[in-house]
Queue: 2 jobs
Job 1
Amino acid sequence: MTNIAKSENTDMNMSSGPFVDVANTPKQQRAPKARVTAQNVNVFYGQKQALFDVCVDVPDRSVIAFIGPSGCGKSTFLRCLNRMNDTIEGCRVEGDIKLDGQDVYDPKIDVVELRARVGMVFQKPNPFPKSIFENVAYGPKIHGLATNKTELEEIVVTSLRKASLFEEVKDRLHEPGTGLSGGQQQRLCIARAIAVSPEVILMDEPCSALDPIATAKIEELIDELRANYTIAIVTHSMQQAARVSQRTAFFHLGLLVEEGPTETIFTAPNDKRTQDYVTGRFG
Ligand SMILES: Nc1ncnc2c1ncn2[C@@H]1O[C@H](COP(=O)(O)OP(=O)(O)O)[C@@H](O)[C@H]1O
Ligand SMILES: [Mg+2]
């Protein structure tokens, strides 16, 4: 049996259950498990192409940062992953994007369910004009995740705890979410995403409207969340990317120039464009 046949065999075994022969697969060949895979993604706004053949894997339970100058396509790419681009008139996405091996653009996919599995946190905190409690309870209610009031309360409290917000709001759960500070509102939005048990959380410059203290809290939270969630974050701050991510992808003019371990991207990138960007020569 050739090596190739052997590894194919192992792959088949892995998908078919109990006969996994991991011992036969050399360790260095096993890439970190990808939660999301994107292959040859092209995105157009009308006639204008915004992304060109983007290929990247988002590894399980870790943080990947998307960096690059304004307008290079970071948000566009992030929105491909949970089909938020569907909501933009004239936007067309081509290519292959899979979540746990399942085609995200399969017409049979329920987009509402997809967006629960792949949650999103935006630049400006956008709580619903409802109470803190209702902001978090809304998703579990529409997805039928709780069978009674006690279960719903449990989900709300757990989600607020996971978002490091519960202690600050426990005495005013029925006050409006919009009455919180910016940083608290952003953590409320994270709690809202968490409440529907997502696998992946997308964050598009989640700290850009926040002061440094609120930013530090969110970064700390992201670091805690990666134990249980797969996170992709767009940031214009290279310091932030360096602080929170394990892998970094650098975009430039609609191309994914380079992707790799965060430390490598910042200290020893392969491409001159990455080098110029991370050393502050443009951007
Ligand atoms: N809704 C839209 N309609 C038309 N063009 C858009 C739209 N959103 C983004 N673009 C264009 O796509 C390119 C990438 O934008 P974007 O993904 O927002 O970049 P980034 O997040 O890196 O700043 C830019 O040239 C931008 O002008
Ligand atoms: Mg953007």
Job 2
Amino acid sequence: MSKDVFKGIADPVRRQIIALLARSPLNINQVHEYFPDISRQAISKHLGVLESCEILKIYKAGRERYGYLHKPAFVALHTWLQPFIQLEEHSLHNDYEVFLKNTDYAPGMPFSHPVMLQAMLSKDANFDGSFYIAVKTTGIFCKPSCSARPKPENVLFYDTKEEAIKNGFRACKICKP
Ligand SMILES: [Zn+2]
């Protein structure tokens, strides 16, 4: 895949230009008409970036140069995204903000370590009550949605409060697990 295809779509003006070109090939003056607040030079630069990352190709008609969208760039973007879409499609609990693969979690099974870490980092309250996060450096345990931000390498996970307490951790005063 073109190595700079993500650079091409990284800028909001370039994404707008791509949306325009999806309707019709345009030359630079036609593109510029849609952006009265942006200089022609800046538009030219954006078009140059899109061309260099092969999101657009140039069609020459007489002295005019028209930019048109180059399909392989979009196929490359789609190919890159597809595994994440599949992950979402295959996740069982779409209420959660994190990806849950079948292999990571099935109803009745404990959550896997990566899933709990993702849940902690996203502070998803849907996980509250499912497990508890104990922080080795502070001796405190929390709900997944707690506003505290422990480092991933300092945390342990417990299925129940009782387990966390038995292992010497105290309940957090902020989230009151
Ligand atoms: Zn807490």
